[in-house]
Amino acid sequence: MTSSTLVNTIHDRLQQAGYEDLPTPFRIAGVEFQFTGAMRGRQGRALDLVLLVDTTAGSFGDSDSARVRSRVQALSRALDITGSRYVVTTVLAGAALGADMETLAETCRVLHVEAGPAVQAGAAVPVWLEDRIRVLLPLSIPQATTDTETGTAQEQLEKALNGQVHADTIENILAASPNGETAVTSTIAAMLDGALDGEPEEKEDGQ
Fold first, then answer.
1. What distance in Å separates the CA atoms of residue 121 and residue 125, rounded to the nearest whole number?
2. Domain 5-136 grouped into CATH 3.10.450
C-alpha cells in the first residue's frame, strides 16, 4: 500500500489487531470500488469492513469530500443489494474534510485521525493515534498484578460487581474480551441459553 506514513501506521496497527487486507480495487454487486486501503476483521470482528482514506495524499480523490461520500454511499448500497452484514467503518487519515462528512456519518461509522506529532516509520504507535481508532481494537484487559490494593483484573471486576455475578461468568467474559464486543456478547448469550436450558419446567397445578 503506497500512501502517507500516517495511513501506513494505522494499517499496520489494525493488522496487528487481527485485521487482514482486502485487495483493491474490489468488486461488489458488479461494481468496482477503489480506496487507499480496505481491511476486514477476523473471529469476533469478522463482520467489520474498514476503509482507509488518505485525505492528505489525495489518492483516488480522497481529498474531495463529495467523491469520498459518493463512493462510500455506493458501497453501502451494493452491500445492501447483496444482503451483506458487513459493518463499515471509514477511517479518514489526515486533513479534515468538509460538511459532506456529516452525511457520510449517516451511512457508516466515521473515524478521523488527524495529523499529529510526526509518526516515524516502524516506530511504536503513539497513544494519541490508538485513541482515535480504539473502537476497532481488541479490548485490553490489565495483566495480573501483585498489588494487594488493586488485585487482578478478575478480582477488580468481582469487587465492582459486589458478588452479584458468579466468578465463572466473569472468567468467561474476560477470556472472550480480547476478541471484541461481539465475542463478549455471544459468550454472555451462550451462558444465558445454557442457564435457561437447565431450568426445570414448571409443573401444572396438582402434579
1. 10
2. no
